[in-house]
Every structure is written in structure tokens, then in C-alpha cells.
Amino acid sequence: MKKFFKATLLISVIILSITQLSFVVFGKTSNTVKIGDYYQIGSYNNEKILWRCVDINKNGPLLLTDKIISYKAFDEPGDSDKGSHSRGSTVDKFIYTLSRQKMRKEEGSNYWADSNIKDWLNSDADSGKIKWSCGNPPAYKNEAGFLSNFSENEKSVIKEVTQKTLLDANEYSYTKNRSYLPLERKLEDMVKRYNNAFGENTTDKVFLLDINQLGSVKKNLPDYITAKLNESEIKNSELYKNVYVISNGISDSYYSYWLRTPYSFSSGNISNSEVSKKFSEGCLTMTVDKDGNVSRSKDDNGNIGIRPAFYIDISSLKIKDGSGTQDKPYTIE
């Protein structure tokens, strides 16, 4: 009888655990996290950062900043040939009527793995001490790393994950046919092509959304793919002061922000070949515009917003205060 009772109890615990896990995997809820919840974690420019749970998948709950926190280039050019900057396309003069070569050395790289913005987002180094993977420091080289503004407890809830990041034709040899992800008019059409598009696994703590994750945001919280500016950027940004007209209600306006998905070529589904390389300049990355449409920009464009994301580690999450609303977000113990 005791053995039967113990076996029954064990089975009940296993069933309960699986049930709780299924909530996380299928995006319904978990013990402390559900889609739509707000969290206040870390700071930037002396302003607390507000995040929102926008999806729950196999990596856990995905948090995205409520607003654009800064304007920064995705990646900047330079003299270094290190990493992806040595793989920039040789531009076909007949197609582009350009005399330039090595586009990445002149306009930055759309390769996420050694991009300036990835290095900054994942660094907690002090001012001027960030190591730049591509060898070319950006205009924001004298800033401290993004994670330097987080307490140790706050950093502990940021899960390091390995996930797919798409590539364009500059990152691999031309021996096999591979599919690219074209820029479509509808986000849903790009999401459908995502699984078959060629990419690689990258490991990050903090990252920019890709097309697939943006699709999940639109599905779960349709109005949340557009983004406003945080107050510190409005008050302190030289870019904001110089580029945008200050008027009543300006803080309620929406602005463009970067994704981490490369813009591979200008039209159609082109198979992997020397022809496709001519459409893959290697210096264009997808963005989300002020209306929520997917567009693209040159990687050295410092007029595009940064909207970070990360997966929260539930096992390390200890809520100190808050109710998960925008006005009363959860705070970390």
C-alpha cells in the first residue's frame, strides 16, 4: 500500500510539473509570467527601463522594451578587415552602376554575430572598454556597455540563449542552393518563409528581434510592434534635437527601430548563386518603421532606434513589488 501511495504521489508530481511546463511552452502563463505583463529591469541614461512580455516559447518568456531606448547604428564601417567586414560583396558595376567594392568596409555590416550593436547590448564593461568583434569601434564607443546599468540580481534573470539568426549571401560559400528571406509587403508572408531561410545559431543574452519574433509580437500584441521614444532620449539625444521638430505631443509619436534580420537582396526569390551575391550588398538590415511596416536601412545609419529584447530566466526570477501593469510593473528583488 505504501509503495502504491508513493508511486501515485510521484505520478501526480510529474503530471503537475508537465502541466506547468506546457503553460510556458504554449504561451498561456506560468507561475509568475504571462504575455502582456510589464517589468521594470535595469536602466539607461538614468531612466528605468520598462519591458513587456510579448511571447512565451521554447526559450521561455520573451521580454521587449516598451519604448526605443536610444538611437544607434547597427554596425559602422572602418579600416579593419576582421570578421564579416572582409566578406562584403564586390558590387557588379553593370547592375548598380557603382564603382565601390567591399560595401561593408564603407557602410557597415549586416552580420549580427560581430555587429557593434550586439557587442554593446551584451556588454557590462565600463566606458570605453567594450571589445568590438569586427575591429571597428562605432560612434558610441565611449559609452559603457548596456548591461553595466543592471544590478547583479537584474542580470541574473537574463537568460543566455542560442537561437537562429538569418544570414545573407556574404557569409558562406556558394556550393549549395539555399533560400533567402525576401522583404515582403506583409510580415506574415516573411514569417511563413522563415523556417526555410538559411541562418546560423547565435548565442546572446540581449538581442534585437528578428522577423519571426516580430511576427509573434504582432500575433500576441498587435499594436506593440510600433514604438515610441523613452523620455531620456527625447531630453538628451542630440539626434532628436537636430532631426525632429519639437512640438506638442511629440513624445506620443512613433519611430523606426532595428531588427537583427539582414536584408539580403532587392527583389524576388533568388537561389544561391553568383547572381544572388550581386543582390546581397551585406550592409543593409531590416527595420520596423513608425507605422509598423518592415523596411530596411544601411547599417551605419545612426537615426534608427534600439529596442532590446531578452528571454527571462524564471528559475532566477524573484518579484519584489508591482502588479505587472504598465503603471505598476513588476520589479526584481
Description:
The structure is a single chain. The chain contains ten helices and 14 strands. The protein has helices spanning 2-25, 93-96, 103-107, 116-121, 152-156, 187-194, 211-220, 231-236, 238-243, 274-278; strands at 38-44, 47-57, 60-65, 70-71, 158-159, 161-166, 199-204, 257-262, 284-288, 294-298, 305-306, 309-312, 319-321, 330-332. The chain has a seven-stranded mixed beta sheet with strand order 5-12-3-2-1-14-13. It has a three-stranded antiparallel beta sheet with strand order 8-9-10, with no helix packed on it. Helix 6 crosses helix 7 (211-220). It is globular. The model is unreliable at 1-30, 90-101, 241-249 and 266-279 (pLDDT under 50).
